[in-house]
Amino acid sequence: MSDGPAGRRLPPGQAPAALRRFGLPQYARVRAQPPARPVVTVTGAVARPTQIDLADLMGAHRRHARRGDLHCVTTWSALDLRWEGVRFRDVHDTLATRVGPARSANWVTVTGLDGYRACLRLDDALHPDVLLADRLAGAPLGLAHGAPVRLVAPALYGYKSVKHVCAIEYRRDYDPGSARWAAHPRGRVAHEERSRHLPGPAWRFIWRTLLPRVRRLYDER
Ligand SMILES: Nc1nc2c(c(=O)[nH]1)N[C@H]1C(S)=C(S)[C@@H](COP(=O)(O)O)O[C@H]1N2
Ligand SMILES: [Mo]
C-alpha cells in the first residue's frame, strides 16, 4: 500500500480518479436496455437451471450499505463509493436451494446484458463485502454504472464487478471471461493480480499508456 496524493492509502500502482462509465473497449458503444421486469438466468453445473425475477431476488434478502473503492486494473481508483444492495452470499444461499449447484462448482461466471462476463472464484464472491448493488450514492443505480443491478467486489479489480447482471453460471473450472488473458482468475487488488500473464507492476505502465484511448471511447456520446 502506498499513500495517494490526498494522503489516503491506495493499493499498489493505483491513482485516484472520479467515477465515470468505463469498461472493455468493445463494450463502450453497447448500451444495455434492461426490461421492465428483469430476470436473472441461473445455469451451469446445477441440477435445476432456472430464471428468477430480479426484484423478487433482491427483495428476499436483508439490505446492506457499504462504502468502498473501485479499483480498475488500468490504474485508476474511484474512492469511497457508497453502494447499497444485498450480499451476493445471501443470494447464493437462495440460489443454491433453488438450482442445486454441484459441490465441485468452485467458480461463478456473472454476465451483463451487454454481453460482458467475468468469472470469480466462488469463495471470493461469497465474501461478506461482495454486494449485488442497486443503489449508488443514495440514488437508484443508473445505466452508466450498471442498472438494474451490478456486482460490487471491492477487494478485486473492477473487471470482476459486472454491471447489468442478467446471468449467473456455476462452474467447475475458471472461465477467462470477456477480458480473457488481460484478467487474472482471482484479480485481488492487494496482491496486484492484474493479469494471469506478467507480474502486476509491469501492467501499470502498459495500462497507463492505453488508458486515455479507452476513456475517450467511453466518453463519446
Ligand atoms: N457489463 C459490464 N460490466 C463491467 C464492464 C463492462 O464493460 N460491462 N467493465 C468492467 C470494468 S473493466 C470496470 S473498471 C468497471 C467500471 O465500472 P463503472 O463503469 O461503473 O466505472 O465495470 C466493470 N464491469
Ligand atoms: Mo477496469
TrEMBL record:
Residues 40-174 form the Oxidoreductase molybdopterin-binding domain. Transmembrane segments: none annotated. InterPro entries: OxRdtase_Mopterin-bd_dom, OxRdtase_Mopterin-bd_sf. This is Molybdopterin-dependent oxidoreductase.
